[in-house]
Amino acid sequence: MKRLSLMVVAVVGLVLSHPAFAALQVDVNQGNLQPLPIAIPDFISVSGAPAAGPANTAAIPNIAQVVRADLERSGLFKPLDPKSFIEHISNINVAPNFQNWRVINAQGLVTGQATLQPDGRLRVDFRLWDVYGESQMLGLQFTTQPATWRRVAHMISDAIYQRITGEKGYFDTRIVFISESGPALHRQKRLAIMDEDGWNSSFLTNGFLVLTPRFNPSAQMIAYMSYATGKPRVFLFDLETGRQEKLGDFPNMTFSPRFSPDGNLVAMSLESGGNSDIYIMDLRTRQTRRLTYDPAVDTAPSFSPDGKQIVFESDRGGSQQIYVMNVDGSNPHRISFGEGRHGTPVWSPRGDLIAFTSVMSAQFRIGVMRPDGGGERLLSNGWQDEGPTWAPNGRVLMFTRTAQGGRGSQIWSIDVTGRNQRRVSTPGDASDPAWSPLIQ
Amino acid sequence: MRPNRATAERAAPRLGILVSILLHAGLVVALFVSFSKKLDMPSDMVSIVPVDLVTVADQNNVAPTVKKEDVTPPDVKQQEPEPTPDVAPPKIDIAPDVTPKPKPEKKTDSEKFDINDIEKLLAKKKPANAKVAQRTVQGIGAGTAMTVDLITLLQSEINRCWTRPDYGPHPERLIVRYELFLNRDGSVAQAPKLMPESAAAAAGDPYMRAAADAGRRAIYQCAPYRLPADRYNLWRDIVFTFDPRSPVE
Question: Does domain B109-242 correspond to CATH entry 3.40.1000?
Answer without folding.
Answer: no
